UniProtKB/TrEMBL annotation:
Residues 16-276 form the Deacetylase sirtuin-type domain. The active site is at H146. Residues 328-338, 360-382 have a biased composition (Basic and acidic residues). Residues 326-397 are annotated as: Disordered. This is NAD-dependent protein deacetylase. Zn(2+) binds at C154, C157, C178, C181. The gene is HST2_2. One of its GO terms (molecular function) is histone deacetylase activity, NAD-dependent. NAD(+) binds at residues 44-48, 54-56, 126-129, 218-219, 242-244, 262. It comes from the Eukaryota. Pfam families: SIR2 (PF02146).
């Protein structure tokens, strides 16, 4: 009954905790009160229906579109070494992504609903859009694993920078400079090559205490975040709601896959749990947030989700392009520093080599995740991709 999209992977292995590896089996488990400590893990896919592109979707993702520009590689926009040389691309994106413009999706409201029902142990999010907070999930339930726009500081002297000032600069598309030392100011978003916040390491074993993990809207390609679902105990049910299967989810005895759109997925789950009306009511309360982007803006013909995303990407691409043209000289300088041996088309390969520790898994990793939990000092784990950046893959092929 209506569970065509929940796809058990190996039907020969019986589930240990659920009655069946289906949406209905999971809803039964939740309704029976056995899921009272739910850990949710999210990524950019839960915000795409708000109009914010994700990173890695092949045509609509930010990286695919930024890669067409002259960044040495797409992830450079979030690379701390690159930012120190050329902060303009990041600030161009920040201008678009700065919180306040977007309405939370029904998926954000679903997380809020779990909290209201006293079922949410913790939300780990990789998103920097703050839409979980906007949806009413309280601060103490959120681990912003890749930081957020909530605070900003000087990258040189670490002095905090006033919120009003950064808002003004981002609105005017200017680069903010520290009032103390004139250093570059950066929102406390975790860039590649930087450490994750303390809160991530303090809470990263919570999946082991949970009785249900829900993973939504993430490709699980960035470490150490990608290791979180693997920290759940053997027979703890894990639900993946995502357009594609990721991170080995589906291999566990009690994994349920709901492949497709997040918003559709949470609505189906809410319906199966008898919560749909409450969920829709909660989401309706967010209608005033980010008015520009909310549904039903008058005087505009209704656009499909894909059209909204395409518009957004076009605008971002155009603005970053303009920004890059303005700072061409700067980029050339960076290229010269990062790629001393590169005279022509070998740019990406040379970059990959120069920044090996940022984007390539360490050689001593056991599989994808091994390095994360063997580290003596967890604080030494920097943000890095589990996969090579798209341009690197292309060059290797
Ligand atoms: P990705 O873009 O890597 O992955 C998004 C995932 O969501 C993909 O698997 C998509 O198929 C899926 N998806 C997109 N829209 C969806 C929808 N409406 N419903 C269901 N699934 C959907 O984004 P993240 O995994 O969040 O780092 O990326 C992780 C990190 O990489 C980000 O935090 C960012 C980036 O570099 C920083 O900003 C530092």
């Amino acid at each position: 009954m209506g569970n065509e999209e929940s796809t058990p992977v190996d039907e020969s292995v019986p589930p240990q905790t659920l009655s069946s590896r289906t949406l209905e089996g999971l809803a039964e488990y939740i309704k029976s009160g056995k899921a009272s400590k739910i850990v949710v893990m999210t990524g950019a896919g839960i915000s795409t229906s708000a109009g914010i592109p994700d990173f890695r979707s092949p045509e609509t993702g930010l990286y695919a579109n930024l890669a067409r520009l002259n960044l040495p590689y797409a992830e450079a926009v979030f690379d701390i070494s690159f930012f120190k040389q050329n902060p303009e691309p990041f600030y161009t994106l920040a201008h678009e992504l700065y919180p306040g413009k977007y309405r939370p999706t029904i998926t954000h409201s679903f997380i809020r609903l779990l909290h209201d029902k006293g079922l949410l142990l913790k939300l780990f999010t990789q998103n920097i859009d703050c839409l979980e907070r906007e949806a009413g999930v309280p601060d103490d339930k959120i681990v912003e694993a890749h930081g957020s726009f909530a605070r900003q500081s000087c990258i040189e002297c670490k002095h905090p920078y006033p919120e009003d000032d950064i808002k003004r600069h981002i609105a005017a598309m200017e680069i903010p400079r520290c009032h103390e030392c004139e250093g570059l100011v950066k929102p406390e978003i975790v860039f590649f090559g930087e450490q994750l916040p303390q809160a991530f390491f303090e809470n990263r074993m919570l999946p082991a205490q949970s009785d249900l993990c829900i993973v939504m809207g993430t490709s699980l390609t960035v470490q150490p975040f990608a290791s979180l679902p693997g920290a759940a105990r053997g027979h703890t049910p894990r639900l993946l709601i995502n357009k594609e299967r990721v991170g080995g989810l589906g291999n566990g005895t009690d994994d349920v896959l709901l492949l497709g759109d997040c918003d559709d997925g949470v609505k189906k789950l809410a319906k199966a749990c008898g919560w749909l009306e409450e969920l829709e009511k909660l989401w309706a309360e967010t209608a005033g947030i980010g008015k520009d982007q909310a549904e039903g803006v008058p005087d505009e013909p209704a656009k499909s989700k894909d059209e909204v995303l395409e518009d957004e990407i076009d605008r971002l691409t155009k603005e970053v392009d303009e920004s890059l043209n303005l700072s061409k000289w700067h980029e050339e300088k960076v290229r010269g520093e990062l790629m001393p041996r590169s005279a022509n088309g070998a740019d990406a390969a040379a970059t990959s080599e120069g920044l090996h520790s940022r984007s390539q898994p360490h050689e001593d990793e056991k599989g994808n995740l091994g390095h994360v939990f063997v580290s003596e000092d967890s604080k030494e784990v920097p943000l890095k991709s589990a996969d090579p950046a798209p341009t690197e893959k292309k060059d290797e092929a």
